[in-house]
Amino acid sequence: MIYSAYAALVLTGVGWLIADEAKDAANAERWQEVAASLLMLHGGGAMLTLLLLGALVPLHVQRAWRTRKNRTTGATMVTLNVLLVVTAFGLYYAGSDTLRPWISDVHIVIGMILPALFIIHVLLGRRSARRGPIGSRGFAPDEG
Known about the structure:
Elements: H1 2-22, H2 28-66, H3 71-93, H4 99-131
Helix pairs in contact: 1-2, 1-4, 3-4
């Protein structure tokens, strides 16, 4: 489910960026409608992803942290997801014309970085799982 939710967020986010840029071109009204629809889908996908991320904390994050697996990319994933949530909140509620573009840029940059980090995190986790537990206490070394 999390893979599908992230994919939907990436597709709707990138689609919105394209539609938002095209609003100033020919068929501006149509592109405005497309951008609004994609933004609505992106927000709905974000709500679903928040539920899934909440489930990941006790089911995945805590267990992996205790067994010292994939800590670096895992902590980075958690941090970037928190920043996406905070910047999304800021985009929705920030009324400042000065602050809003900055928040938007941060949200977009993190949103573009996260898919690559997600893939790296999953690949490192799978590599770690194939090797199995290491050490006398069953801990695997921090692999990224």
